[in-house]
Amino acid sequence: MSTESDALSLAEAAARDWLAGLGTRSAGASASFDSLYARFDAPLPEQGQLATDVVASLIERAQGGLQGNAGGRFFGWVIGGVTPAALAADWLVSAWDQNAALYHVSPIASVIEQRTGEWLKQLFGLPGDSSFALTTGTQMAHATALAAARHRVLKTAGWDVEQDGLFGAPRVAVITGRNRHTSVDRAVRLLGFGQANLHIIDSQADTVSPDELDHALAAHGGPAIVVLNAADLNVGGCDPFATLIPIARRHDTWVHIDGAFGLFATVSSQQRHHVAGIELADSWSTDAHKWLNTPFDCGVMICRDAEAHRAAMTQSASYIAPGEGARDEIDWNPEWSRRARAIPIYAALSELGRAGVASIVDRCCAHCANIVAGIGALQGAEIIAPAQLNQGLLRFPVTGDDDAGDDRTEQVIAHVNASGEAFFSSTTWKGRKAMRVSLCNWRTGDDEVERAIAATKRALAAV
Ligand SMILES: Cc1ncc(COP(=O)(O)O)c(C=O)c1O
Fold first, then answer.
1. Ligand 1 contact via 287 beta carbon (within 6 Å)
2. How far apart are CA 293 and CA 184, in angstroms?
3. Is any atom of ligand 1 closer than 6 Å to the C-beta of 448?
4. What is the pLDDT of residue 1?
5. For the chain, which residues make up each domain, given as ranges?
């Protein structure tokens, strides 16, 4: 066998072993920073090594440093797992090594991306003539959407931003709520709007209210972009789109939705009410690597205004020929060379179908509710935010001493994580520490829910 074949066999065996152990291995990484650092603390090698040695050494040195988010007992951040077809397809993406930049560079990558985008619009119930981009993640989906928005609102104000940039342009306000994800802030910075032009509606409520939005838009008066939430990653709150978007329309603004995971609520008849009216927006960001359970590097942006989107992204060069009717990805995505990330998305959608995606969403929401209620019923626990969609918050208070309650909350989380039975991440909610319960993995079932509750019960007894 060739070295290449042996290296692939090693990787495949390690991957199979990793997946087979997801139910029994620690749900979180266990090695310390010092030990992980020491394993890789070596100068650049002068001479290369055999591929098999490289792969074997990587597998060995990764032990203990891998988080178990591919498994069903991982409830930290908002990190999905990976479906079998999406994983296998992702291996092929690397083996095929296609450059999904434009049709002539990889015909099949272009054709699959075109179909995948059409399917994603159908999945979410978004306008069929929308354009789309497939990005690294929601971060760059936001940047792409807000670039399209920037084009449109400035063009309406008589300014060509692609030609003339932002120096001297009318000031554009980006208006959003307090519970936005900070990837919105970075997109605003990357696009040159500046943090000072990010207007935060700092309401008491967890979502933006109609009056506040109306007031903020009227106060600014000039070109504006509104960014709304579906959903926030602490309490699963979705802004009331059906009311807010018509208000934004009256002010002639662009509405972008951060639907990193919440856009998937559109797929479920049980959860859809949370995002009623979401289809009225101008652009939407989401992550296939969250609730669709593809491997990472699968962000999605969908845009009602294809002309603005293309104007913001399109590229040409002397050495490329257009795809003549086929999709040239560089016209829509914020990158030139890129992996064929549509392929795992296509695979996951084919494997699951609409019903399978809806089932993952429903199961995650039900399991989230069960974990929050189950831990909340333990002595010494308090529910801060009951499950909404796939998110909920818990706290382990100390009577009369909020700071001690913060410490105890962190200690309980650390104890659960150290047990390896489940993994939770923490947050600060309204100034106080809380345990986040966040689910978006197809593998989570009743057993994983019970193990998480039991591990928390043991932690409460121990700290
Ligand atoms: C609501 C929300 N928006 C944006 C992001 C950023 O997504 P990405 O990490 O894919 O850029 C996240 C990530 O968890 C999120 O939950």
1. yes
2. 23
3. no
4. 52
5. 89-351
